[in-house]
Amino acid sequence: MSGRQGGGPVGIVMLVHTALHRAEQVARHWARAGCPVVIHVDRIVPRARFDAFRHSLADLDHVTFSQRHRCEWGSWGLVAASQDASDMMLDRFPDVRHVYLASGSCLPLRPVRELQDYLNRHPRTDFIESATTQDVPWTVDGLNHERFTLFFPFSWRRQRRLFDAFVEVQRSLRVRRRMPSGLVPHLGSQWWCLTRQTLSAILQDPNRARHDRFFRQVWIPDEAYFQTLARKYSTQIESRSLTLSKFDYQGKPHVFYDDHMQLLRRSDCFVARKIWPHADRLYDFFLSDDGRAVSRQEPAPGKIDRLFARAVERRTRGRPGLFSQSRWPRAGRTTDASAAKYAVFQGFAELFEDFEGWLSRATGAQVHGHLYAPDRAEFAGRQAVIAGALFDSAALRDANPRAFLTNLLWNTRGERQCFQYGPRDTATACAIIAADPNAQVSVISGAWAVPLFQSNANFADIRAEAARLQGVEARMLKTWRDGRTRARVRIWTMAEFIEAPTEALQLVLEDAGPAKAPRLSEAPRLRDLAGFGQFLQNLKNQGMHPYLMGDFPADPMVPAPKDPERKPYLVRK
Amino acid sequence: MGIWQSYRMRVRRKRLGLRALRKRRELRPVADRTADLSRRDILLFCTQRNEGARLPHFLDYYRALGVNHFFFVDNDSDDGSLQILARQKDVSVWTTRASYKRSRYGVDWMNWLLRRYGHGHWCLTVDPDELFVYPFCDTRPLRALTDWLEASNVKSFGAMLLDMYPKGRIDAQPYQPGDDPLRIACWFDAGNYAITRNPQLWNLWIQGGPRARVFFRDTPEKAPALNKIPLVKWDRRYVYVSSTHNLLPRGLNLTYDEWGGEKTSGMLLHTKFLSTFPQKAEEELARRQHYGASREYIAYADGIRDNPDLWCRFSEKYINWRQLEILGLMSKGNWA
């Protein structure tokens, strides 16, 4: 019995309501190491099962049972149970110097001797997490300080509507209960380890009846009663719990399973909660006396903290750009953005020869053709299938053009994507791109006329097609310029663009991702536009008015010499 | 409007419940071991026809996960599978010669058995070619998941259907009874799924994968739905509406998060495309008992004759659930 050397042994108060066979194992473990154990069994446990449980521990004379209360979550019963059991502990076992409050699903992770040594080294310290109400982030149902100032006669779990309504009524009536004098409200984890001095001062306080009456009406008093009163009496509070216990965003404790074994071993915490009752390997390992080397490590739960913090993050924020059976953010919110930044080019492939090839040479990006082309999705290199087994069928793509885009960006995370777009393509994609803050769109308006100009079609057909494309692009420009557009959009008319293409291309390259060279080394070749002005004039003469490309003189046009001083006109979003 | 909608859903739920009640007369018990059930058992419900080759692995797989009792409806098998099932100690089996189609592809039978035996239990409803995978399924039994769901007040758990296929011709590697089908059909499509929301029943509607890519590339709207909700803490008021794609009351269909977070979900690995498949497709085509005028099987029969390789250069080889979680197909949510 190691505990008898430096000071009194640590006494364990256990609150038990389910998995009694595990509670029995753990109680036996504590008792075997010389710790007195007082067990409180929830009154909800049927008489017969309680008797069997009690009988199973009858061979241990320093394991006793305290008076039973009904311990509903967030109710006074848990405090009453802790009080009675602690009273019994202090009364029956006068050697005990520290009392450790644990639950039936707590599991000691280190040999009891190490805990005993640790407490012997801190003989006057109370280990209890205790913080003022202003400083704690854990609020359930938006209640923090009001836990102390309102009345809570209804159960949060079973009578949620009444609970909420009654809180609202009290708020509007400005109900404020007075704290008993001398007390400052504190909150903290319900699992503490207090010295005999502090605990007996709390339990034998002449004002205890008043305190109890007050805390009976406080919401979740087990996180407030001892935490507040310890502040009054303790000479030395170490505001942390020796029990490793983590809560998720709903205020529900995280559960440990067999696969947490290594994590728990390395945490160097004394006790962990809450253990899944069927985690056989954890119970077998941590409850065996295998003569592990005694260590004097301080508890270091950092790794476990991070694991659970990541889990909460995943549940509340998720992975940006993921659309799946688990995460399907509603449209129009900041959470519905795609996975990564990408660049969209409208009119560039029409104006320059081999624009795609040039762009992929100049940047490290993956450059696609017209992904929304009418006959198929033109993936880079014109593959039929691309990452994620995304397929080039136009019908599949157009059945859900948004999913097509978000899938592409999700599948190719880590590699910047660029693609061409224009008035010949699926028109519904325009609004989808415009609504995505990750899109960087560059538009040369009117450039759709160049392929028509170079085509070998009858002029009447050309005229009709030009009218159609101009109408479609005009609507697209309206979307790009709309106040609700979240994409960043630059727009040039074709006439503006070819006046100073180098400057414009430099800007565009920055969108397309990390450039291979800091300056443009190789410019893409402009298509031969000799006679384009006359072509537009012919359209005008036929009664169709092409205006999106800006002003082109009718005489044979010479591309303007490059002027590095002039800035292109651009619309920024 | 909202109230009217809710009322219509209620009527629909009641009607489906009554329909299930009526269809119970088509079922004849062959082995009824339901007296052995205990209150906390995890139950599995399944309709099967001539799946004798798959059953040995199927039963082993789910026993290992921690299913306590199996409920089968045998639809007129003639390959001895009914006898295999009747011999198992943890299986109760009913048989029927009635029309699969007119029981709404087995859903009415399932609804009846769920209503009669599932109340208060966690119930897994799957097909014989579906293998359930969930986060940590290699280290934590199914009971760990259901305990956690229960503590989180979650009543239904989504698991998307993931079509698995072999590399090369479907009939190239013969499947033997007892084999792990995933050793042959171990490839899948990682990122070509399109999702919309069903405005009436609130479930997500997921389409895509190899079936859309190969068999429905020109008519994607007809591609089969892949969203499923196979695991439910059953209540006798619940009904499955269309296969296990959706339930009523429709709150059970909200297995996804709409505010940017991820809810915990699993996967059903669909091992339909084994060497047994071409023959099955021909047979089912002749019976014409499948959904949507069996158009799926018509498409298969055509597709299978032309080009029996579902594999492509960007197919992903299955390793484990962690891989599916990293790819974003399923999620751990806040279960850690």
UniProtKB/TrEMBL annotation, chain A:
Domain (DUF5927) ranges: 273-572
Cell membrane keyword on record: no
InterPro entries with a match to the protein in the record: DUF5927 (IPR045971), Glyco_trans_14 (IPR003406), XYLT (IPR043538)
Basic and acidic residues: compositionally biased ranges: 562-573
Signal peptide: none
Record keywords, A-Z: Disulfide bond, Endoplasmic reticulum, Glycoprotein, Glycosyltransferase, Golgi apparatus, Membrane, Metal-binding, Signal-anchor, Transferase, Transmembrane, Transmembrane helix
Membrane topology, from the record: Single-pass type II membrane protein
Protein's name according to its UniProt entry: Peptide O-xylosyltransferase
Superkingdom of origin: Bacteria
